[in-house]
Amino acid sequence: MLKEILVVSGKPGLYKLVSKGNNLLIIESLIDKKRSPAYPRDKVISLGDISIYTDEEEAPVGKILTAIKEKENGGKVSIDIIKAQPDDLRAYFAEVLPNFDRERVYPSDIKKVLKWYELLISNGITEFLKKKEDKTADEEVSTENSPTNANEDKADAKPVAKAESSTQTATVTKRKAAPKSMTAAKAPKTKSTTPKTSTPKRSVVGAKRGG
């Protein structure tokens, strides 16, 4: 489900992929349901390709959204996202992702994830992790549509910092697609849900560690 939910740089909220055309996407805002085009120059990334920095490796945002849902029994978050102090936001986030990187994940990043969660559940989107049977079906389709030698997916992901806003929120990493990982074995090349742009295929929420 999260593969068809998009984040568009410079635009608020989340967007649902409606259709794809020549060099553009038609997207629908989850906030006001208005539709608009997204062009190759726009920085668009699937929510399913976003991760959060931890002390070990990146954690997929779907896993974190699921943990929030379990903590809140499927309801809204029990913290005031707007008024909460940084320490309160960190304490809340530690309950759903105990090993998140305190140095690279800012309170503004935590707010962003919590807002995504509330926007998704308000739109009836409550399944954040791909079911095993769906994943198997996708892999079978990908195998049929992929070339015999799929060597482009061997590269390991390495975070590359890129400031997204003046509030020092998100950085972007460039990562090749893997079967399921915000982490895995070599997988056949799959079709992207975003237009061919210079936008990285994966994004990691947080700031690059200094040094």
Distance between the termini: 37 Å
* Rg (C-alpha, Å): 17 Å
Number of strands: 10
Number of discrete helical segments: 4
The SSE string, one letter per element, is EEEEEEEHHHHEEE
Portion of residues in beta strands equals 15-25%
Shape: globular
State the helicity in percent bands.
10-25%
The main sheet comes to: 5 strands, antiparallel
Overview of the molecule:
- The protein has helices at residues 61-71, 86-96, 107-122, 132-145, and strands spanning 5-8, 15-21, 24-29, 35-38, 44-46, 50-52, 59-60, 158-159, 173-174, 203-205.
- By secondary structure, the chain is of the alpha+beta class.
- It has a five-stranded antiparallel sheet, with no helix packed on it. Strands 7-6-10 form a three-stranded mixed sheet. It has a two-stranded antiparallel sheet with strand order 8-9.
- Helix 1 (61-71) crosses helix 3.
- Mean pLDDT is 76; it is low at 136-200.
Task: Give the SSE layout.
Elements: E1 5-8, E2 15-21, E3 24-29, E4 35-38, E5 44-46, E6 50-52, E7 59-60, H1 61-71, H2 86-96, H3 107-122, H4 132-145, E8 158-159, E9 173-174, E10 203-205
Parallel strand pairs: 6-10
Antiparallel strand pairs: 1-2, 1-5, 2-3, 3-4, 6-7, 8-9
Helix pairs in contact: 1-3
